[in-house]
């Protein structure tokens, strides 16, 4: 239910505030929403789900990878401690990132299974993609730390919706990716980020 409400808000915000894809970027006179750095990093990470899906399709690997997921969660927990963030909060945020990525992967697999559809060519080696994901993981934790004065307030849900809509438009996301971006943001405003 929470995802559906956030998705409705995100779609509404995207129709109200997101610039069309053909317009130039925001000018310096128009400040970006306060969570735009965070949602841009989340969108960047999510965009890599396409390459992950293509690689897994090529290798026949399963979408679910519990061992890799545990490595990600353990790593971001340590990053959280290093930035005086609550590790449980950051783990929740990254569980959403992981599930959102799998939503995209499942959606693409379903598409590629349709008659006449094919997956893009890909290498089974996920090493370079995982390195890029790791960089986005660090950026997301850094943005959570930088945004702690927003994510712990009632300003967070509307600002997250606006920032997510702008990031989705900037990335040229289709409905599958827009829905996954909403899923990725579910826990951002959920709890306090203080470690005490």
Automatic annotation (TrEMBL):
Q: Which residues form the signal peptide?
A: 1-28
Q: What is its EC number?
A: 5.4.99.5
Going by the UniProt record, its keywords in alphabetical order are: Isomerase, Signal
Q: Which domain of life is it from?
A: Bacteria
Q: Which GO terms describe its molecular function?
A: chorismate mutase activity
- What pathway does the UniProt record associate with this protein? Metabolic intermediate biosynthesis; prephenate biosynthesis; prephenate from chorismate: step 1/1
Chorismate mutase domain: residues covered: 17-109
Q: Which SMART domains match?
A: CM_2
> How would you classify this enzyme at the top EC level?
isomerase
Some GO term, biological process aspect, for this entry: which one? salicylic acid biosynthetic process
Asked whether the UniProt record includes Transmembrane among its keywords, one would answer: no
The name this protein carries in UniProt is chorismate mutase
Q: Which organism is it from?
A: Gordonia namibiensis NBRC 108229
């Amino acid at each position: 239910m929470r995802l559906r409400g956030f998705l409705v808000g995100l779609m509404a915000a995207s129709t109200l505030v997101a610039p069309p894809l053909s317009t130039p970027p925001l000018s310096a006179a128009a400040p970006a929403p306060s969570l735009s750095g965070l949602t841009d990093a989340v969108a960047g990470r999510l965009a890599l789900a396409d390459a992950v899906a293509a690689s897994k399709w090529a290798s026949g690997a399963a979408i679910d990878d519990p061992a890799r997921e545990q490595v990600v969660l353990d790593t971001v927990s340590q990053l959280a401690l290093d930035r005086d963030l609550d590790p449980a909060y950051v783990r929740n945020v990254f569980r959403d990132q992981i599930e959102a990525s799998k939503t995209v992967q499942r959606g693409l697999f379903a598409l590629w299974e349709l008659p006449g559809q094919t997956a893009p060519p890909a290498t089974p080696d996920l090493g370079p993609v995982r390195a890029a994901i790791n960089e986005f993981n660090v950026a997301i934790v850094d943005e959570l730390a930088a945004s702690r004065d927003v994510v712990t307030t009632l300003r967070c849900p509307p600002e997250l919706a606006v920032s997510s809509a702008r990031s989705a438009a900037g990335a040229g996301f289709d409905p599958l990716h827009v829905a996954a971006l909403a899923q990725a943001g579910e826990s951002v405003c959920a709890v306090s980020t203080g470690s005490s």
